[in-house]
Structures are given as structure tokens and as C-alpha cells.
Q: What sequence folds into this?
């Protein structure tokens, strides 16, 4: 069985926060304790939506040491493939779900002297658990959080009430923008940056940090890519000797799993590298969307990350 | 010629590169002896205007040549130990984006790197270039004493007097290689010392 170990949970609270974001609380069905995790970890939530099984990663935002329950916050994406809509519309208090053990691809570097957190929109969620972890250890941190408007600022009240001196909030609709250059310039030696938000924000922060001579090792970022729909295509799985049709609304990885082939995965968002698959033969074009493979690997036609990447063309044969 | 072609070795032996000017508003260069040549190789006025050089001459006469590069700050100290308080102070006041360049002997680079890592710079973000003596800073695994500038293998521990074999096993925490007693089983049976890379 691929992926991290599984936990059966029941939804015990469903709390709408604003027009777009709803919080879910999961407690183990067997009444036992959940594993502790580290700030920044995510869980993969399994959603059986009719014939489709979706596995979507969500950052854990609860206290990493709270073993009674996990909480996640989900932003509704009306344009997406339906994972967030399923959670918003079909999951209620009492619904039982299967989630994965926590996996952390966005952990704090505890060698840092100071943690500088930059969040955009729903990218706030991993920081909520990181802040709880750092508060226990009396860590040195500050948060700069950009959101669209006061109405859509998830957890702004909670953060500014509990940490009035460490949290800075910026509202797009009031033309408030993070003064990034001055924020980065002058940070004490040993500061690490953590950024989670839209791709544009991550690129902006990484680019500015590089311009100012920050070491790459001191800049951490997390961006989960949701698989995008695309034209249907056919894939041949050489080891399993199966031919699978990948539908418009499903990812290559989901199609492989639907065919009963146990393919490795962890984050399902193009970040962790676990599902890397060797291409044996192809005639057509790859639509690479991950940020795991290097550019030359994308160009080589030898590897694909089936969790987020697609293919357009006649023949695709994978070593799976 | 101050450059030395190190033979292939085990993974835990440090590998040194070639200094290159990197973008940044502040630059700190720490060098001893022939390390001065590596600084001179990359020194251009724009870079030097933003650079603090800390130099330990170890009997060489590079000090005047480095001063002539017009760095923003130039310090020449009589020994590494004498320069440590300055290095620590500079790192304490430094900001992210500081570019650190270490060049010269392994002992100098290793010890300065330890200070920088303690101050919060990831070790992989520190540039190094070996120049000059290939002598090693050795820690005796038996008495824990450090013997500086060891040129031969085996050598005699300056603290406990044991005959020590020079290993390639390096500790970033100690900024030293490991020296292990070579005649423990058969006291007095000590091979003729030769150069470490001979």
C-alpha cells in the first residue's frame, strides 16, 4: 500500500470561518490518540465521491502536541476538480473519513535563530501549527500575512489577539502590501524565511531573497499544486501490463490507482518526489507541472510526476 | 604556487572550492597567509567597497597588498586566536545576506566556519578556497587535545605524547581531523613519519 499509514477519523466539528473557508475537526473513530506531528505537516484526506476517489493534501493547523484531534481549514475552490467542494458540501459532522499519518515537507529549521513567516491567503494554515510549536519552545518568530480583505482574513482575529506584537496583516483591498525588500534587509544572521501562498508570492519572496544574497538553505516554501484537468489520454503501464485511459477530470496518478496498480505517492501535489516515474517510450508532449524535477529532467522526456503532470499525444509507456 | 591538488578521499573530508564574488550588500573575507592570493584574484573595487577583510599573515607579507585593495575595513591580526573576538563581533552584528569567504589553511577555514555556523549561516552557504600549507589541525581522540599545523603522519600529540595516525575523518564541530594512536597494540612500533599526502 502506497502513501503514509492511514487513520480512520470522524468529523466532530465543521465550522464556517468566512465566505470561502471552512474548518474541519477530525477525531479518531477508535477513540485512541492521534500521532503528534511537527509544525507545517499535512495530511492526505481520502474522499470517496461517487466512483472517484480523491486524495488531497491539507496542512494540519492544530497544536502539533494535541493528540485528541486534528484540524484543517479548506478554502472552497469553485473552479477546481471538486475536492474542496466535496468537503464543503458533502462532509458533515459525523462523516467518517480516512486520512494519512502526518507528513511534513515544510518543517521548521530548528537551527534558525529567528523564523520569518510570510503567508498569503489560505497559505496561513501551516503557520498556525508552526506558531504553536514555536510558542512552546519560546521560539523567535514573526508573521507577515497578506489576505484579500478583512472579511476573508481567516484567523486574523485569533492571531492578532494572541500575538499582537508578532503578527502583521496586510489587506489587498486596502492596498496594503508587504514591504518585502525592507523586511528582508536587516534581518539578523540566522533568520530563516518560510513562505506559503500563491505561486506568485512564493516566486516573489524567493527572488527577492536571492537578490539580497540570502542562502537558498534559509528560504523554505510550500505550494501544493492541485492536479489540473486536461485532455484525456492513454497510458500503457509496462510492468503491470495494463492500458489505462486518463480522464479529463482525473490525474494520471488517480487513473493508475483506479486500474488497481499500487503506485508510490506522498504529497500528491508535485512537491515531495515520491511518485517520480520513469518514461519508457512516448510520442507526444508532456505537460509537466511539478516542482520536483529539474528543468533538464522535464526536457529529457525520461521522467514524469503523475500526481500533477499530464501528457498530450499518441503513446505514453511508463515503467509502472 | 599556493594551490594544492587534493587526492580523492572519503566523504567526511572537506572539499574546498574556488572563491567567486556573489551578490550582496556586505561581504566578510577571512584569510591566512597565501589565502590573500585568493582574495586578490576576485578583488574588484565595487566588491572591496563592501568588504571587511580579516587577515592573519602567519609571517607572510601579503598584508600591504590586501590593504592596497582598499577594502571597506581591513584588520590584520597576529594569530587566529587574536582575531576570534573580532570575528564573533562582526557576525553578531551581521544581517542575512552577508557573504562569507574563507581562504587559506584548513585550520583557519574550519575554525572560522564553526563561528559562522554558530552565528546562523548554513555551512553550505559559506565559500571556501584552500591556499598554502596543507598541514592539518588534529584532535587526539585519546586526550582530546588539539595539535595545530600537523604536517606528518604519524605525529606526536602535543598534549599527551601518544604517536597518532592522521585520519581523513573530519569534524566540523571541532574544526579538526581525528588522530588515533598508531602503536596501541605494539608500543614503540611506529612507522617512519612522512608527509600527509605522500
A:
Amino acid at each position: 500500500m502506497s502513501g503514509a499509514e492511514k487513520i480512520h477519523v470522524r468529523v466532530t466539528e465543521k465550522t464556517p470561518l468566512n465566505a470561502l473557508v471552512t474548518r474541519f475537526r477530525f477525531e479518531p473513530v477508535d477513540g485512541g490518540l492521534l500521532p503528534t506531528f511537527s509544525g507545517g505537516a499535512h495530511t492526505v484526506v481520502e474522499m470517496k465521491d461517487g466512483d472517484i476517489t480523491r486524495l488531497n493534501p491539507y496542512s494540519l493547523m492544530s497544536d502539533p502536541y494535541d493528540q485528541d484531534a486534528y484540524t484543517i481549514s479548506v478554502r472552497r475552490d469553485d473552479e477546481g476538480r471538486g475536492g474542496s467542494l466535496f468537503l464543503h458540501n458533502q462532509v458533515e459532522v459525523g462523516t467518517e473519513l480516512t486520512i494519512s499519518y502526518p507528513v511534513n515537507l515544510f518543517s521548521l529549521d530548528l537551527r534558525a535563530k529567528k523564523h520569518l513567516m510570510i503567508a498569503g491567503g489560505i497559505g496561513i494554515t501551516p503557520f498556525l501549527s508552526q506558531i504553536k510549536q514555536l510558542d512552546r519552545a519560546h521560539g523567535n518568530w514573526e508573521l507577515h500575512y497578506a489576505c484579500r480583505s478583512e472579511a476573508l482574513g481567516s484567523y486574523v482575529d485569533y492571531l492578532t489577539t494572541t500575538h499582537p506584537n508578532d503578527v502583521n496583516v496586510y489587506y489587498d483591498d486596502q492596498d496594503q502590501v508587504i514591504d518585502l525588500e525592507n523586511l528582508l534587509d536587516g534581518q539578523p544572521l540566522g533568520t530563516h524565511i518560510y513562505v506559503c501562498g500563491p505561486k506568485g508570492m512564493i516566486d516573489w519572496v524567493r527572488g527577492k531573497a536571492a537578490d539580497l544574497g540570502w542562502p537558498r538553505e534559509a528560504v523554505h516554501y510550500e505550494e501544493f499544486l492541485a492536479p489540473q484537468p486536461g485532455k484525456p489520454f492513454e497510458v500503457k503501464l509496462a510492468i503491470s501490463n495494463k492500458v489505462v485511459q486518463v480522464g479529463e477530470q482525473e490525474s494520471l496518478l488517480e487513473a493508475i490507482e483506479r486500474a488497481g496498480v499500487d503506485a508510490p505517492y506522498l504529497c500528491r501535489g508535485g512537491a515531495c518526489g515520491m511518485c517520480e516515474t520513469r518514461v519508457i517510450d512516448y510520442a507526444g508532449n508532456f505537460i509537466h507541472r511539478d516542482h520536483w524535477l529539474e528543468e533538464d529532467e522535464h526536457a529529457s522526456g525520461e521522467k514524469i510526476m503523475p500526481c500533477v503532470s499530464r501528457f498530450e499525444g499518441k503513446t505514453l509507456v511508463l515503467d509502472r | 604556487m599556493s594551490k594544492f591538488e587534493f587526492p580523492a578521499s572519503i566523504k567526511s573530508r572537506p572539499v574546498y572550492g574556488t572563491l567567486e564574488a556573489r551578490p550582496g550588500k556586505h561581504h566578510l573575507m577571512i584569510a591566512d597567509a597565501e589565502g590573500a592570493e585568493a582574495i586578490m584574484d576576485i578583488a574588484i573595487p565595487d566588491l572591496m567597497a563592501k568588504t571587511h577583510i580579516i587577515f592573519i599573515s602567519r609571517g607572510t607579507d601579503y598584508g600591504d597588498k590586501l590593504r592596497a585593495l582598499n577594502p571597506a575595513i581591513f584588520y590584520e591580526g597576529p594569530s587566529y586566536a587574536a582575531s576570534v573576538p573580532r570575528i564573533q563581533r562582526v557576525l553578531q552584528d551581521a544581517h542575512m545576506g552577508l557573504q562569507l569567504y574563507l581562504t587559506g589553511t584548513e585550520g583557519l577555514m574550519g575554525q572560522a566556519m564553526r563561528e559562522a555556523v554558530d552565528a546562523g549561516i548554513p555551512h553550505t552557504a559559506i565559500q571556501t578556497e584552500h591556499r598554502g600549507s596543507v598541514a592539518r589541525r588534529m584532535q587526539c581522540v585519546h586526550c582530546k587535545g588539539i595539535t595545530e599545523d600537523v604536517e606528518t603522519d604519524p605525529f606526536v600529540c602535543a598534549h599527551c605524547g601518544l604517536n597518532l595516525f592522521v585520519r581523513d575523518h573530519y569534524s566540523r564541530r571541532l574544526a579538526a581531523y581525528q588522530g588515533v594512536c598508531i602503536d596501541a597494540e605494539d608500543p614503540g612500533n611506529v612507522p617512519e613519519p612522512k608527509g600527509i599526502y605522500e
